[in-house]
Amino acid sequence: MDDVLIMLSGRIRQGMQAFMFLDVPERVETFGLLSFSCSLGGSLGTNFPTAVNLAIALLALVAARSRSDAQLLGLCVFVGCTILTDLMQLFHCSAWAGAMLMFNAVLKFGAATNAYRMVGAGGYGDDDADSGRGLPPAAPYQAPLGVDDYASLAAEAASKHVGIGDATNYRAI
Question: Where would you find the membrane-spanning parts of this chain (predicted)?
Answer without folding.
Answer: 44-63, 70-88
